Every structure is written in structure tokens, then in C-alpha cells.
Amino acid sequence: MNSRLASIIRKEFIQIFRDVRTLVMILVIPIMQLFLLGYSATNDVRNIPLAVLDQSRSAESRALLDAYRAADYFEIAYSVDSESEIETLIMSGEARAAMIIPPDYARRLHDGNAQVAFILDGSDPTSASTALSASQLIGQSHATSILAQKFERSGMNLRVQPPVEVRTRVWFNPDLISAHFMIPGVIGMILYAIAAILTATSVVRERERGTIEQLIVTPIRSWELIVGKLMPYVILGFFNTIEVLAVGHWWFGMPIRGDLGLILILSVVFLTTGLCIGLFASTIANTQQEAMLTVWMTLLPSIFLSGFFFPLEAMPKVLQWLSYLMPLRYYLVIIRALLLKGVGLEMIQFDVIAMTLFAIGIMTAAALRFRKRLD
After folding, report:
1. Pick the CATH number of 48-153 from 3.40.190, 3.30.200, 3.40.710, 2.60.40
2. Which of 204, 239, 229 is nearest to 26 (CA)?
3. Which pTM value belongs to this model?
4. Could you report the per-residue pLDDT of 202-220, keeping only the tens digit for each?
């Protein structure tokens, strides 16, 4: 490394450490985002407030309610006396589901044809679909238990067993913990956002303060200026990667099954993409506010079209094709496969090649555009 390049890198580090707000953004915000998204961005549905209208008030109806109470999907939050109260609770959002047990429930249960009504608030499809499946499964399990008890009381030595039994196994995430899926995505989002925003604003800040002209008139070459501006953020982004991986592993219990060295190398490749997008944005913007808005214009589509929140397979074909233009898409496939599945490079080679080509392409475009602005 020549002395000119080392001087630029040293100057950039001094500027970062003098700016307390930037330093806090680099070190603290990634951890805050990790905790917020790790706990809040989850598809697990638990403790759905349930309103109950028990018109039977019998031992059989209480046994049914105990079955729903034992599962952690529902919380019997309200016991009401009329259907109008149920309507009021669901309309106000205080209850997300309701169960109506008819007066003749106990008699019909002994006759073998009892029915109960289960009402769901469909304004939130995610919670409603989970609650629908859970309510049906709990009801079927309770019905099977009642049949078994009937056979025992009648002295019949019969086993109640369905004709087809599906035995399931869940690989890689047996407990279906949402955080194990979300945290790798958070790593990608943090690397992309921090790298692009800091790079874009740092270059524009030089232009606003007039110091970019002082650098241009020095003997430093344009490529040395580009590398010198980017290298500190590569190092800090690398530190952020290790920081988030450590917190995700030790606090959230996220497994790291793949090769750690490969994870870090590919993270640096993706980090370079974010840095170059920020550099490209800095050539378009004239102020730091414009630079921030330009980066956010690329960040939001990347989040929604990368599979971070929503599965790509569920999107329309047009959006699936657009997702191939998002480097975050490839990184999320890579980081989730390495962390959760522990695959080798050969299993993710398409995404690695695509991400690398994207990094080279945006790096070339950013360098040419930046050099042109310097000229």
C-alpha cells in the first residue's frame, strides 16, 4: 500500500471517529436493528385473544375450553353472554377470534354430532390463517380423545387410529423459530444500508465542505481516492458482520453450520456491492439529504423483492424477474444456506457468481461515474 492511499484511509478513519453520530450509527444501530427485528419480525402466532360464549356451561364444554387453553395459540381473554358482545370485541380488535358453544352441546356430543362455531378476524390474514389451522387441529385432537374415552368406557379394546399417518420431520430449524430465518436477512439488510448510506453521505459531505477539490489537486490518483474512501467502510462493515453474527448466535441461538471463513468472504463481496451503490449515489446527489433519499430508493425495493419478508415464489412473475436485479436477493440465499443448512460453495455457486458479477458491474459503473465527476 503506497503512502498516498494510506493517508486517505487514515484521514477517513479520523473523520469517522471525530463524528460521534456516525460512530454510533456504525456500532450501535446494527445491534438495535437486530434486536428489534429479531423479536418483532416474526411469523409465529401465539396467545391470540379469544372470546368465548359458553351457552352450555357443562363439564363437556369446560373440557373443550381446557383443550384450547392448553395450546399456546389461544388465550381465553373474554367470557361473554351474547353474540353482540362478540361482535363488539372483534370489531374493536380486542379479540381476534371467538368461540360459540351452543346450549345443547353436551347432549349432541353424547349423540355424536356436536358442533361449535369458531369466528376469526380475517383483517389480518397471517394471524387468521394460523388461528384457523390451530382451531381445527385442536378440535380434531379433542374429538379423537373423546372417541377413545367412549371406547374405554364401553369396554371395547379398540385403538382409534386414522387410516393414513403422516410423520413429519423438519430439517435445519426443527422448532420453526422465526428468528433463525429473520436474522440472516437482518445481516444482509444492515450491511447494505450501513455501507451504502455511509459511503454516499461521506463523499457528498466532502463536496459540501469543499474538501473534495483539495483532494483533486493533490498528486493522488482517482482510483486511490476511491479505494481510500471505501476501505474504512469495508473494515467497519466487516466488523458489523462479526458483531451481528456473534449476537445472533449467542443471544438468539442462531446456528452457524457453514464455514465461517466463507461466510465472511462472501459478506465482504456483498458489502463491496453496497459500498459501490453508495458511491454511485454520491455522484448523482449534491447534498447529503439527496444521497440518503437515493440510497433509500434502492434499499426499499431490495428489502421487499429479495425474500427478506415475503417468499419470492408467492410474488407475481414480473416481480420475480425484477428480484434478479437486487443483489440482496443473492446474498440472502447465500447467508441462509450457509448459516442454517451448512452447505458448501458448490450448492450456492449460481448465487455467488451472480452476486460477484453484480459487484463487479456496479463497482465499474461507480468508479467510471466518480472519475468523471472528478474530471
Report:
1. 3.40.190
2. 239
3. 0.77
4. 778 777 776 766 666 667 7
